[in-house]
């Protein structure tokens, strides 16, 4: 398992242990980012892209992907006091929309199926059309 994939799973494990969404561990984030040779912003987008594509391809369950993006967002806010970069924020918002029933949803609506899956599909399709590579 690559270091990036381990970082993704770390978020879910931390959530399972604490019951809350802790930010990604700074040292782990920095170690993987530096090994990838990316800026903080580029690595956040790369992390989000990896999560989006792995979720789309059925390699990550919703809960794991959602925890990873929530932890990335929390990390960005706590370590840098800024919002996520644009691409990462789009992915974060797609998973966020699947966390709850919306006011106009019928009883029994699956928010993940109604909101998250189509948004992630659109993001992944855009990446593929643009020839954006996803690496671990």
Q: How is this fold's topology laid out?
A:
Elements lengths: L2 H16 L7 H11 L3 H17 L5 H19 L5 H12 L13 H20 L6
Helix pairs in contact: 1-4, 3-4, 3-5, 3-6, 4-5, 5-6
Provide an overview of this structure.
- With 136 residues, the protein is mostly helical.
- It is built from 6 helices and no strands.
- Helix 3 runs antiparallel to helix 4.
- The longest helix is centred in the C-terminal third of the chain and has 20 residues.
- It is globular, with a radius of gyration of 14 Å.
- The termini are close together.
- The mean pLDDT is 92.
Strand content: under 5%
Number of helices: 6
Low-confidence segments, given as residue ranges, are none
Using only C-alpha atoms, the radius of gyration works out to 14 Å
Secondary structure category: mainly alpha
Overall pLDDT level? 92
Summarize the amount of helix as a percent range: 55-70%
Shape: globular
Gap from first CA to last CA: 9 Å
Quaternary assembly = single chain
Order of helix and strand elements from N to C terminus: HHHHHH
Main sheet makeup: none
* DSSP summary, beta strand count: 0
Report a brief summary of the structure.
With 136 residues, this protein is an all-alpha fold. It has six helices and no strands.
Name a few traits of the molecule:
6 helices; 136 residues; mainly alpha
